[in-house]
Design goal:
2 copies of one chain form a homodimer. In chain A, α1 crosses α13. Chain A is an alpha/beta fold. In chain A, a hairpin with a 5-residue loop joins β3 and β4. The complex binds adenosine-5'-triphosphate (2 copies) and magnesium ion (2 copies). The site of one magnesium ion has 4 residues of chain B, from α1.
Chain lengths: 257, 257
């Protein structure tokens, strides 16, 4: 039965997509069957693993809307072994306005993912930079949430607000939701500000912060232009090593081999 | 009569807030009366100019909802001469769901800003990383839009999509909306990827791209932790000079002294 991990943070550009793609690729390389779900209309996760966003194809929103549509018809294989994806496309942008009027509007994604929970070891949800209905649906469908936090002042400022939102979801819509960890990203050890942010997060959130820190590494931002995870682009670079370490840290924490 | 400039890009973390604050502060330093409007529930523009986001205070959403409330009651002075702000707070996050059912839901912000257009030379709107109702309202209320584009692959990928959305607004809700320019941000001349993005944008969008490029500069990301624009933090740093050059480029383009 798959563990469903949601990547969420309403602050933009903190590394949600980069973490979703490269954590998924690391699990896949360790031979865990992994499904990536792109719930962001920007479709960065979709293009980052080599697929072309296509509005003709069904996406997570079509699955929510149409009970007849089987999730197996929407899942696509990526060029990377053990890594599948439910792709996104631009038309997903209109979904939230339509979902507002639906019954059970926060719990629409969960039954879709339940259909394939037994086919995968991990299901990873990439979210857009907002706390709208698609992100709330992802938090309700998830077992755990990983919060990427850029080593910058604004990212730190918004963290308390996000933790509040998660506890609201925990109290009502998804009592079993846990925070898997806070992941520090784009860390540059030469910068005083970055070191202050790491110190602050470790002081306030203690064990909640992952031991693994993702360093700023140009290969991580070049890999998407070659439409592949960094592991396939340059397996020896710091970014690839950081994400592989993160995968191992999560596996250890969950007592998986 | 104020020129209303909107900062928009659904891609997160590209420099919308950094541009809104530092362009506004540059205009203010050149003695143009400037109003900053924070339409993002993250309230980064609000804290970045020295105010504490406060849910007890009215924000742009309260002005949209309540015809009796005068915009003059909501505008606050910042510690910086010639720079006022309509602040934001966390509760703005619920606004979009409520606006969906309203009549004229895309044109609610425009009449609010019309009330103060004659009190300022520039009104600058900072938007959240989405194309939801608050961002659409900002595009409809604006005369021009500035599109910040980070010198990264994903930021480039989303640009075509944003230009599409803007032309939809131009054809229907706001025919006079113009693109003031595409602003390249976080440029690091040592990175091949950054140079590729600059080349690509200049090739495809020609005159639409500003001559001024904002370089990656640590002072720009440190200034918000001191709750001030970079001009007040370190007026001689590259970031401050870049934003002052941008202000002058816009003034020249609009034949203003
Ligand atoms: N550790 C890193 N080192 C260098 N660049 C990085 C790193 N992590 C992410 N990036 C780059 O920074 C930018 C922002 O990252 P990313 O797109 O993953 O963030 P996001 O949170 O998914 O953004 P959004 O809020 O728009 O969805 C991207 O261009 C990405 O390539
Ligand atoms: N030129 C620059 N050099 C260095 N750091 C920068 C620069 N511009 C912005 N930053 C930093 O990068 C981060 C993202 O910038 P900013 O918050 O302005 O983007 P945004 O588009 O407003 O994000 P969001 O999509 O969340 O609203 C911030 O921490 C900011 O301090
Ligand atoms: Mg993303
Ligand atoms: Mg912002």
């Amino acid at each position: 039965m798959a563990k469903i991990i949601c990547l969420a943070n309403q602050k933009g550009g903190v590394g949600k997509t980069t973490t979703a793609i490269n954590l998924a690729a690391s699990f896949a390389a360790l031979e865990y069957k992994t499904l990536l779900v792109d719930t962001d209309p920007q479709a960065n996760s979709t293009s980052g693993v080599g697929l072309e966003p296509d509005e003709e194809k069904a996406n997570i929103y079509d699955l929510i809307l149409d009970d007849e549509l089987s999730v197996h018809e929407v899942i696509e294989h990526t060029p990377f072994p053990n890594l599948d994806i439910i792709p996104s496309a631009r038309d997903l942008a209109g979904a939230e306005i339509e979902m507002v009027g639906m019954e059970n509007r926060e719990r629409l994604m969960r039954p879709v993912l339940e259909q394939v929970r037994d086919d995968y070891d991990f299901i990873i949800l990439d979210c857009s930079p907002s706390l709208g209905l698609l992100t709330v649906n992802s938090l309700v469908a998830a077992d755990v949430v990983i919060i990427p936090v850029q080593c910058e002042y604004y990212a730190l400022e918004g963290l308390g607000n996000l933790i509040n939102t998660i506890s609201i979801v925990q109290r009502g819509l998804n009592p079993k939701l846990q925070i898997e960890g806070i992941l520090l990203t784009m860390y540059d050890k030469r910068l005083r500000l970055a070191n202050l942010v790491v110190e602050d997060v470790r002081k306030h959130f203690k064990q909640l912060a992952f031991g693994t820190v993702i360093h700023r590494n140009i290969k991580l931002s070049e890999a998407p232009s070659f439409r592949m995870p960094v592991l396939a682009f340059d397996a020896t670079c710091k970014g690839a090593i950081n994400y592989m370490n993160l995968a191992r840290e999560i596996l250890d924490k969950n007592h998986l081999p």
